Amino acid sequence: MIIFTFVRLLGVCFQIVTISYLKNVSLYIGAFVLLNIAISPLELTTLGLLSRIITSINKSKPTLITARHILLIGLVITVGLILSLIGGAYAGNDYSKTNVYTPQTTSKVGIGLWIASFAAIVVATVVGSFSVSHADLGEKRVLFAVADPLPLMLVRLVYSAISIFAYTPRFNSVDGDVTILLCMALLEELAIVIMYESVGITLKKLERHDTPNSKECGAEHNSA
């Protein structure tokens, strides 16, 4: 959530600064890119919670989802974030020369990776739901904290996808339709953060030997 907070605050700062520097193209492009990439830290937070519940379940009943699967999904999300940032930088350079904003292929690939990651998170959540009864005491609610925000996250992801793939003026986060931005992005982000924080602050801190990475390392050590 720290990354998400930083991205959103930086994006807002860019928008505020444009009041004094109306002709600074970089500020507008930066605000646009930061809003679109905000979905990635939300997916990473979801993945962190999912990793916790899957690890808890796997301690007593192994599932099809392992720590390596979680790490792979996280890697895909991170690569999507990097590609989106690179695409935003190139789009900003092109705009400064042509006065036309053209979403780059790298940005489209980044969104595609986030869509794939979201699908993988949904599948992992469904798989985990069949064995959630084997989770540790007090951990079962983590699965609901993962599952409940998924419809909202889907709407948020659709907004970013339309803004990049279709790039219609109404879905431009800088000077597009404010109502669409509010109803398909900002309110979803607010609701998701509230859901995560309400559960996160009540969870106990995991010991090192309970973390997904330590479990994976332990399994490899035993097999050796």
What report would you give on this structure?
By secondary structure, this protein is mostly helical. It has nine helices and no strands. The longest helix is centred in the middle third of the chain and has 32 residues, at 67-98. The radius of gyration is 19 Å and the shape is elongated.
Helical amount among residues, as a percent range? over 70%
**Structural class by helix and strand composition:** mainly alpha
Strand content: under 5%
Number of helices: 9
What labels would you give this structure?
224 residues, mainly alpha, 74% helix, elongated
Helices and strands in order:
Elements: H1 2-17, H2 25-37, H3 39-58, H4 67-98, H5 105-129, H6 140-147, H7 150-166, H8 178-200, H9 212-223
Helix pairs in contact: 1-2, 2-4, 3-4, 3-5, 3-6, 3-8, 4-5, 5-7, 7-8
At a glance:
This protein is mainly α and 224 residues long.
